[in-house]
Design brief:
The protein has 21 helices and 31 strands. By secondary structure, it is an alpha/beta fold.
Length: 637
């Protein structure tokens, strides 16, 4: 692997660090060609590319134009921007956690027989594919039919109906119906178990199940109906550039590593609790289908994950966190970038958050935008969520723009637009114009309100996702004397309160048992139900778990920090104390209700009725008191 360039580093000053690794060719092939991603943080056995230097686009035309017009402020801003970008270093993880792909180059061509044989005739030398016919001939009148069939006469074509494909690079499995209507595994038919001795020895003593490494799908409808299919799979809707695209696919032979983009905390997840369904926001926004509910828990397949970051932005609790880099590292970078810009004399900084896919056209736009635009390059634009946008405003940005390219997955774009709708409500509540945070539109002239930008926080925020969001919001709200009335939030936003029908509530604490954020919690020393609005994510589990249907969700956002953080008492009651040990053990109203319902029951008369007034410990002791006094009686039948 290429040796990194390492400058002197002062641990007290992250900006003194300058490290650059150079990319290996395999990383470029794996990530640039197949996932349409520039390998900004990717790792391969042959090399790595982990850049902690902020690259500057060619801004000379912009600067020259400003100077030519004698724009003093523009000149200061241009110099301040150059200084900030050059002296603010990203302290990313230089050796990120990775996941591995292992490919022997076993290629499956699936589709109409004429198209898969044409593809087989164009493969690089030495590649011997498996051919699977899954549908009728595509073009029976094609002029080259006889030629391609002659060229591939040595290759047998198998036929299966209703093919189903799963997996990723090095781990593809295809099943389909044979002539007898049985669903069979194609790889198991084509490759014997003993065909994998090296891999089996490297992993375990047991031979690995046969699989395909690469799949070229030439069918009319793709076998993966995903916005972003797995690495190692290529759907070829037409034959344009067929040879080149197949050569790129076949080059994926060897061992590859890529970052593990996420960190998952199952304990913080609000997907389900005690069988009660809750939040599923992350499942709706993953363009690669890497997230799946398994045994009541969300699980993420790191091999399918391509690092779009939409799941982390959608997660209201921070159970899923983007880890390339993590949120606090990104927030620290934003804080230092804006700080350096101000120190260099820059005014009214506007942040432009852009992913590696958008770098080319964003850099072109920066050359004609005013000099107070600061680019923030991230792995994916959606990896920085609403908490980072508001933190940037609190750090002194006058506006935040998010760049999304035309090729951004629809689910990612929809998520960003939903988050922007919530951001507009919060901005209004904080006394700011809605255009302070928006999508970047190069053709709209980018009108931004004239509200001054002031750095409100002296240190970067280091809490969890929700703490950082509300800390930034509260700073903006106080500085701008924001609204004191509850704000109406968009449908599905993770902010709100609950209403309790006191007369129906029995204080059974079923809601407390399922609440993932402890927004609802018990009083502790006496029967009662408390609530903290800031912690409520509107997952709905309390509403579904309540046997009396006494809880109703109220979507809103309370802008006043003290009111939002306050512990509200939804219901409190006198405790029923044990008639033997005097320990409080249940709400008094619940015990009275039980006595009324069991008053005529034959099993709860006389002494048994008194046990209803005892705690759980004394009740057991009372049941076995007679047996304890006369153990011999247990032997009498």
């Amino acid at each position: 692997m290429s040796q990194p360039k390492v400058g002197e580093w002062n641990p007290q000053d992250p900006d003194s660090l300058s490290v650059t690794f150079f990319p290996g060719e395999l990383a470029r092939l794996l990530l640039s060609r197949l996932t349409n991603k520039r390998p900004s943080h990717e790792v391969a056995r042959t090399g790595a590319y982990v850049s902690t230097e902020q690259t500057l686009p060619n801004l000379a035309p912009n600067l020259a134009s400003n100077l030519a017009h004698g724009a003093g402020a523009a000149e200061h801003n241009a110099r301040a921007r150059a200084y900030a970008l050059q002296h603010t270093v990203k302290t990313d993880n230089l050796i990120p956690a990775t996941v591995s792909y292992q490919s022997q180059g076993r290629l499956l061509l699936v589709g109409p027989e004429d198209r898969i044989r044409r593809a087989a005739s164009l493969l690089p030398a030495g590649v011997k594919p498996t051919l699977l016919v899954s549908e009728a001939v595509h073009d029976a009148e094609a002029a080259d039919l006889e030629t391609i069939f002659d060229a591939t006469a040595s290759l047998a074509a198998l036929t299966l109906r209703e093919p189903s494909l799963t997996g990723y690079l090095g781990q593809f499995q295809l099943t389909g119906l044979n002539g007898q209507g049985e669903r069979v595994n194609l790889a198991a038919l084509c490759f014997p178990q003993q065909g994998f001795p090296q891999q089996a020895a490297a992993v375990s003593e047991q031979p690995r199940e046969p699989r395909f490494d690469l799949v070229a799908d030439l069918g009319r409808a793709p076998l993966f109906a995903l916005e972003r299919p797995p690495v190692g799979y290529l759907h070829l809707a037409d034959d344009q550039g067929l040879a080149e695209r197949l050569a790129e696919l076949c080059a994926l032979t060897g061992i590859f590593d890529k970052p593990r983009y996420f960190r998952l905390d199952p304990e913080a997840c609000a997907f389900t609790a005690r069988g009660v369904p809750g939040c599923s926001r992350c499942l709706d926004v993953c363009p690669t289908d890497a997230l799946k509910p398994i045994n009541g828990r969300i699980q993420i397949d790191p091999h399918l994950c391509q690092g779009f970051g939409s799941c982390a932005s959608a997660c209201p609790t921070g159970a899923i966190a983007y880890h390339q880099p993590d949120a606090n590292t990104s927030g620290d970078y934003l804080f230092r970038l804006l700080k350096h810009y101000r120190e260099a004399g820059g005014e009214a900084p506007r942040l432009l958050i852009a992913g590696e896919n958008e770098r080319e056209w964003v850099e072109a736009e920066l050359t004609r935008l005013p000099a107070n635009w600061l680019p923030v390059w991230v792995e994916e634009s959606a990896s920085l969520g609403i908490e980072s946008w508001f933190a940037a405003l609190a750090y002194g940005a006058s506006a935040v723009r998010i760049a999304l390219g035309d090729d951004a997955p629809a689910s990612v774009r929809a998520l960003v637009e939903r988050e922007l709708a919530s951001a507009a409500v919060l901005l209004a509540g904080a006394g700011l114009a809605a255009d302070r945070i928006a999508l970047f539109d190069a053709d709209a002239g980018e009108p931004v309100s004239g509200q001054p930008a002031v750095a409100l926080l002296e240190k970067p925020l280091k809490g969890d996702k929700r703490e950082n969001l509300f800390a930034a919001f509260d700073a903006l709200w106080q500085a701008n004397e924001g609204s004191r009335e509850p704000l109406a939030v968009p449908h599905g936003a993770p902010y709100g309160s609950v209403e309790l029908k006191e007369s129906d509530c029995t204080l059974c604490m079923g809601c407390v048992a399922v609440c993932p954020s402890r927004a609802l919690h018990a009083v502790g020393h006496a029967p009662g139900l408390n609530f903290i609005e800031q912690d409520c994510i509107q997952c709905g589990m309390c509403e579904k778990a309540c046997p009396e249907q006494a809880i109703v969700l109220v979507p809103r956002l309370q802008p006043v920090p003290e009111a939002r953080r306050a512990v509200q008492s939804l219901k409190a009651e006198e405790a029923a104390c044990c008639i033997r040990c005097s320990k409080p053990f249940a709400p008094a109203s619940m015990i009275r209700r039980i006595q009324q319902k069991l008053a005529g029951h034959s099993h709860f008369q006389n002494e048994a009725a008194q046990r209803l007034l005892m705690c759980e410990d004394c009740r057991v002791k009372d049941v076995f008191a007679a047996l304890a006094a006369d153990p011999v009686s247990q032997l009498k039948v």
